[in-house]
Amino acid sequence: MRDKNTEGLTRLGSDHQYVFAYSSEILEAFENKHPDTDYFVRFNCPEFTSLCPITGQPDFAVIYIHYVPEQKLVESKSLKMYLFSFRDHGDFHEDVVNVIRKDLTALLDPKYLEVIGEFAPRGGISIYPFANYGKPETKWVEFAEKRFFEYSLYRK
User: Are 64 and 43 contacting, i.e. CB atoms less than 8 angstroms apart?
Assistant: First the structure.
């Protein structure tokens, strides 16, 4: 039984076909029942894959998404399918992380959002891009700036 909060969600509870080409249209959101409360939502995608845009070889990563919702929350099955849509998508690691951040920001209009990619080494080098967002004219702008500047200081 669906409540009014989940109306319009088409992925959850249905059979699905994976999309093998990047598509932000896969993402769905639903109403946050606690918009007056600041809280973090964290997603980990330990089996993320995309393709190198030059060689076509697969790139493997753990993608971390942390956000503080306002009016909307991302539906997790649609997020899983969206992240899967990168499987045959060729883009550099830094681009992938920024595209995910921009797509989720456009969908959710969150108070705060960050995306971290921990890409497995290829050629002996690991790449860990970080992109974040703080909602303008809120305390989250300052938080995003502080988090951005401190991100690399505490990483190994």
Answer: yes
SS3 15: coil
The residue ranges of DSSP E strands in the chain, in sequence order, are 29-31, 41-51, 58-68, 72-74, 112-122, 125-127, 130-134
User: What dotted CATH number matches 24-154?
Assistant: 3.30.1130.10
H-state helical runs in the chain: 76-84, 93-108, 139-151
Q: How many CB atoms lie within 10 A of CB 22?
A: 18
Please give the model's pTM, rounded to 2 decimal places.
0.87
Residues placed in the known binding site for substrate: 74-76, 93-94
Binding residues: 74-76, 93-94
How many alpha carbons lie under 13 Å from residue 94 in its C-beta half-sphere? 0
Active-site residues, by number, are: 52, 59
Low pLDDT (below 50) residues in the chain: 1
- Radius of gyration over every alpha carbon of the chain, rounded to an integer in angstroms: 16
Task: For residue 90, give the DSSP letter.
Answer: B
Amino acid at residue number 42: R
